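hiii, so i know i said id send this last week but things got crazy w the move. better late than never?? heres the sequnce for the chain we talked about at the cafe, plus the structure i predicted for it. fair warning i was half asleep when i ran it
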Amino acid sequence: QAVVVSGGNLANLWLQGGANLGSDQVQVRVNDGYGWSSPSTLTLLTKGPNHAPAVLVSDQQIGAGTTVLASTLLSTSDADGDSMARYRFWDGGVGGGHFNFAGTPAAAKLNLEVAAADLASVTYTGGAGAGSEVLWARVNDGTVWGDWQSWTQTTLRTSNVLSVVVAGTAGMAHWRTGRFDDQR
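okay and structure toks below
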């Protein structure tokens, strides 16, 4: 069915999506006062409500001073199948590790927000020594942000100093049958 609208009333024209999910095609032509243009086809897509995306995390361990891509610390899910558009990271600031963007350390207790195209530039570096801290992340699908999710990030020491046994002059230690026996 053809609908003719004058240029002055164009702001009052609107199209409503259908009752069912799917697509409809609408042909549009304009008249400049001398004649009609060729038709142009618009495809209107009726979608259901947008669901917020989700971040999926679990507690992690990393070696002291070790750097990993932030993308390895989490995964994402979107019920609508939308791609992620933006990521936010937050470092609790206790435990010594930190996020980095393009090789530059990010400040603790501040949002580090990046476009999905820049996610490969975000890394996490474990602290200088053993410790743990709570990290947070959330994602945006271009329409809505998902909830913040947290996990415990533990930094493990990466070196070990061997124990030393020192024998005194008062007695001698002998190894016998899997235990030390004092021979006096």
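btw The first strand starts at residue 22 and ends at 28. thought thatd interest u
miss u guys!!
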